[in-house]
Amino acid sequence: MLAVRKGIISTLPLTLVGSFLVIFLNFPIPAVAEKLTPFLPILDIPYRFTVGILALYATFGIASSLAQSYKLDQLTAGIIAVMSFIVTSIAPARLWAEASTTNLLTNKPEIVAAGRYLNIANLGAQSLFGAIVTALISVEIYRFMKVKNITIKMPEGVPPEVANSFIALFPAGACLILFWVIRHMLGFDINATLSNLLMPLQGFLAGNSLLGGLVTVFLICFFWILGIHGPAIMGPVIRPFWESSIADNMEAFSNHVAATDMPNIFTEMFLQWFVWIGGAGATLALVCLFLTSKSAYLKELGKICFLPGLFNINEPIIFGAPIVMNPTLTIPFILSPMVMTVIAYVATITHIVPMTVSRTVFTVPSPIGAMMVTNWHIMAGVLVVINFLVSLVIYYPFFKVFEKEQIASELAEG
To answer: If exposure means fewest CB atoms within 10 Å of the residue's CB, which of 236, 243, 303, 375 is most exposed?
Structure first.
């Protein structure tokens, strides 16, 4: 589970870059968008080689991470996993003779040479679950053969990189034959099968189900209350759905679908910018209340936590207040984001706010981040402000109770 989480997160730089570039495919200023029209095909290329083949990168990341935990050669494990994934995902198409086509960049006819071609369409986020399965299986095969000494051992003095290459010969051959037989001889499509099996769960947790969104928010907050990093626990389960959902939206957006008509509402970016204002539990409101507190400790804690909270880092207040195992602050920590989720959901389905069409790093202040991921829609920033005020109202009575308890404790201590 940890390897899956690390492997998928390792693709974050690429998806961030791809998200930034996809905005140019649907630029929010009409005059600029019109001037960019002739360049759309070439602007689409960076997107295709980042988000467009996300599962390929994730395969290498997951396999490398798992190999590291097993003390196997990470590079070898990653390469074998990538080979396995490609074998399960693509059937090479052969062009027997030259063919005429149109160059998308120049809009002029050109000749495509005869040869074998790979369709990268099956390497995107829709194949992410297949990437996870093939990465894990290929590393387990590699590990099994090494443990059982089913390898070619080289003499002492052979450079490690050469020795590792020979050690990997049997695992590589086993993986190639296994996935080749499964996909191309038996005709069993791992990616399609897993996608079909998991589609209902994706639609519930990371699609358009309000109940699914509320369940996700509740569980993440609940784990935090126990002192456990909520996203770290939920990440291996839900992150593949999140990645697939935002990739679906980005794909639709790159094809000029309106931002209000995206396939998925509940992406990670939806929760990040409309719900986790200041971090999980929407704790920026509580930080601001602490700044006004009559308790010396809470006021000082508010000063310390304000800047991190502004950039959505809230561990200082979660463990400093503490919110963990705190019966007074537990209720608003869970209730506030759930109410905010409902408000953001209603604003989205009524098209007041568009759906998320790109992604950005979580350390951007919320109003700016919300506008960035909705193609710079001003109402996204307005929704963040509204939800922040709502969280202030929800936290306030519980803050007053907690403040009273803290002041009494400070007076008792002299």
So the answer is: 303
Of 94 and 105, more confident: 94
pLDDT at residue 162 in the model: 72
- pLDDT on residue 326: 87
What is residue 225's predicted lDDT score, i.e. its pLDDT? 87
Question: Could you tell me which residues are beta bridge partners of residue 116?
Answer: 94
Q: How confident is the model at residue 16 (pLDDT cuts 50, 70, 90)?
A: confident
Instruction: Yes or no: say if 194 and 105 are a contact pair by the CB < 8 Å rule.
Output: no
Contact 111, 99 (CB under 8 A): yes
Q: Write the CB contacts of 263 (distance below 8 Å, at least 6 apart in sequence).
A: 207, 245, 248, 249, 252
Rg of the chain on CA atoms, in Å: 25
CA 28/CA 381 separation, integer angstroms: 15
Q: How far apart are CA 30 and CA 36, in angstroms?
A: 10
pLDDT tens digits, 351-405: 999 999 988 888 888 999 999 999 889 999 999 999 999 999 999 999 999 999 8
Tokens of 350: 């009524």
Task: Please give the single-letter amino acid code of residue 201.
Answer: L
What span, in angstroms and rounded, lies between the C-alpha atoms of 189 and 197? 12
Q: What is the pLDDT of residue 104?
A: 56
What the block records as the tokens of 1 is 């589970």
DSSP code string of 43-76:
HHHHHHTTGGGHHHHHHHHHHHHHHHHTT--HHH
What is the spatial distance between Cα 193 and Cα 89, in angstroms, rounded to a whole number?
12
